[in-house]
Design goal:
The complex is a heterodimer of chains A (about 200) and B (about 160). Chain A is α/β, with parallel strands linked by helices. Chain A contains five helices and nine strands, in the order H-E-E-E-H-E-H-E-H-E-E-E-H-E. Chain B has a single domain, classed as 3-Layer(aba) Sandwich (Glutaredoxin), CATH 3.40.30. Classes of the chains: A alpha/beta (about 200), B alpha/beta (about 160).
Amino acid sequence: MKIIFLTLNFLFLSIPNNSVPGDGYQIGDVATDFSLPNVDGKMVSLSDFADAKGFIVIFTCNTCPYSVAYEDRIIALDNKYSEEGYPVIAINPNDPAAIDGDELSDMKVRAEEKGFTFPYIQDVGQQIYPQYGATKTPHVFVLQKDGTDNIVRYIGAIDDSSRNPIKVKKRYVEQAVDALLAGESPTTTKTKAIGCSIKTL
Amino acid sequence: MNPNRILFLILVTWYSFAQPKDVASLNYEQLKPLLFQESERVQVINFWATWCAPCIKELPYFEKLNQRDDVEVLLVSLDFPKHKQKRLLPFIEKHKLKSKVVHLDDADENFWINQISIKWSGALPATLIYNNNRRGFYEQSFTKEELFAEVNSYF
């Protein structure tokens, strides 16, 4: 597998491509692991989850109404998929110096209020979200484990109705994870939704 | 006349004066013609919401731009439908916005975000600038100087 990846990388180096460097991950890329502080005071890494088959990584925050509108749906995703091997990992990418309400202490309050069942960790120094290419909250990356690598299999929205949960018709993340659990590739791999720009100084 | 009735009349009168002009709620198909107008003027379409702090910060620059005769500004609000009466209309009234405002109420974001620009990831604020010769999409915040310089580059 490694050799195939290396060969592909080598091939891509010689082919001009249209993506701008720094655009973040594309489908099939290996996502970076991290070690970031959780609301419970402990550090969290993807490698901590030995039994996981993959992850539903969601860049989200306290202060964006679109993120807040999705909180219950994010909890539902974790309830449905963590036991199946796809736990939710929520990462707050905002620099707390750039916006009131996104300090780790604020995140802890929100996690307790809502009863988050998943890690809610802080992207300290804003080092991780640019590598993923997250541009907004919420922004989802579904990863599938391959040995010690985590391969990006889906990027985008949770579903097709951010502002009104009653009008949801397509549950993109569920479709992607269901496909991976069935040993298939997700048919829809990239979607878009409105969100809040990530706040940095 | 009993006091309740008087109070009711006062409230009705106050309400009818206090209500700002209504803002149209459009789906994408209804908004689309406004994004593809044939015009001599440069069209500036700003996507914003009352809860979006960086959007609010740059709104005065768009208002200033709208005073120019050679530019037309449209502010497309992405406020939640349930907040239109409670937040959007009072905000427009309070800040006395002169630019045209519409409310985009269309659930299928995955469809219309790409229709508006393939470059748009969906983050707010975002701005579309176009004329008969050129279209540009900007997923960013502007300073006043940046916004005016960018618009001037269309002439």
